[in-house]
Write a structure and sequence with these properties.
The protein has three domains: 60 residues, Winged helix-like DNA-binding domain superfamily/Winged helix DNA-binding domain (Arc Repressor Mutant, subunit A), CATH 1.10.10.10; 207 residues, Bira Bifunctional Protein, Domain 2 (BirA Bifunctional Protein, domain 2, 2-Layer Sandwich); 43 residues, SH3 type barrels (Roll), CATH 2.30.30.100. Helices cover 33% and strands 28% of the residues. The chain is built from nine helices and 14 strands. The strands form three sheets. The chain has a seven-stranded mixed β-sheet with strand order 3-4-5-9-8-7-6, sandwiched between helices. Strands 13-12-11-10-14 form a five-stranded antiparallel β-sheet, with no helix packed on it. Helix 2 crosses helix 3 and helix 6 packs antiparallel against helix 8. The longest helix is centred in the C-terminal third of the chain and has 22 residues. The protein binds ligand BTX.
Length: 325
């Protein structure tokens, strides 16, 4: 798979100039027949080439996918996304990423697909993952942090995702604490942060990212059609999902490194500027209780501070939030 990615990358970089089969064969140290076989297989995956007589191949079309070759071409990272596990259909990228992490996959490994048949949200809720329309991806991190800090990783990822979406689409989502991105009050993105940890040490963070990208309104099922939106619906543009994945990985690499080095504090004000939670009156449903009050901020550790009606301040570590009138 990696060699095919490299061939595509080479043809993209050639920027419309033909490259001969012989030249590719020399560069990659394989036979011309082997190159030709790779080109055939790429064509079956939706890549297309013009063959200029005696002069070689020009890339003329790429598929509308998030396959490893398309992501590789767009990557601008040191290590994130350098290993990509891609299949058209998966049960859940989280499940596969968990297995990969257990088997020692390194930081920045990603698992991504066109369609999930058993995508999930928090507390085993279902996550709808329409084929070919979204980004359904899990990213493996290996941060040297204690397990209790892991929820902050969700907040760090939310900032990275917001910036990537803004860069690529021109639309800036708002962050709804802790793990949703909304546009015009509707959910376009969900984040699921899971851990493999010993009591005092994180072995891996498996971060699931689900983004509704090129959905039309009719692509949403009855159950979520009133609460969900897509980047295409709000921007009016078809989005190159692979380019967006590359941009997300770019920011995830930068922000996760900064977080591990300097903590949440330097990222906090950026998080707050994107948040639609702070300043609002909200209802926080935790596993045991319901609290209603005004969200006044987050602490330097990423805990949501709620001012209750009796004036006391309650720190919320994990909850579902709804806005109260
Ligand atoms: P959550 O528990 O905060 O949100 C789940 C809820 O969101 C569902 O109960 C439903 O109401 C709503 N919902 C379901 N699908 C969608 C959708 N496509 N768009 C908007 N709203 C929806 C949020 O969980 C975390 C989701 C992470 C998903 C990623 S995808 C890649 C990775 N693999 C996997 O199985 N999960 C993660």
């Amino acid at each position: 798979a990696t060699l095919k990615n490299e061939i595509i990358k080479r043809l993209v970089e050639a920027d419309g100039k033909p490259i001969s089969g012989q030249q590719l064969a020399d560069e990659f140290g394989i036979s011309r027949t082997a190159i030709w076989k790779h080109m055939k297989q790429l064509q079956e995956k939706g890549y297309d080439f013009e063959t200029v007589k005696k002069r070689g191949y020009i890339l003329t079309a790429t598929p509308d996918t998030v396959d490893d070759a398309k992501i590789t071409v767009a990557l601008e990272t040191e290590k994130f996304g350098h290993r990509i596990i891609y299949e058209e259909s998966m049960t859940s990228t989280q499940t596969i990423a968990h297995n990969q992490a257990q088997d020692g996959a390194s930081e920045g490994t990603i698992v991504i697909c066109e369609e999930q048949t058993a995508g999930r949200g928090r507390m085993m809720r279902e996550w709808k993952s329409t084929k070919g329309k979204g980004i359904w991806m899990s990213v493996i991190f290996r941060p040297e942090i204690p397990p209790y800090e892991a929820p902050q990783f969700t907040l760090v990822a939310a900032v990275a995702l917001t910036k990537a979406i803004d860069d690529v689409t021109g639309v800036r989502p708002e962050i709804k604490w802790p793990n949703d991105l909304l546009i015009q009050g509707k959910k376009c993105t969900g984040i699921l942060t899971e851990l493999q940890a010993d009591p005092d040490r994180v072995n891996a963070i498996i971060m699931g990212i689900g983004i509704n990208v090129n959905h039309e309104q009719a692509d949403f099922d009855e159950e979520i059609k009133d609460i969900a939106t897509s980047l295409k619906i709000v921007s009016g543009k078809h989005i190159d999902r692979a380019a967006l994945v590359a941009r997300i990985l770019y920011y995830l690499e930068i922000y996760s490194a900064q977080y591990v080095k300097e903590g949440f504090e330097p990222i906090k004000s950026e998080w707050e500027s994107y948040s639609c939670t702070i300043g609002s009156r909200i209802r926080a449903t935790t596993l045991q209780d319901v609290f209603i009050g005004k969200a006044i901020g987050i602490t330097k550790d990423g805990v949501l501070e709620l001012q209750l009606d009796d004036g006391t301040i309650k720190g919320i570590y994990s909850a579902d939030i709804t806005l109260e009138k």
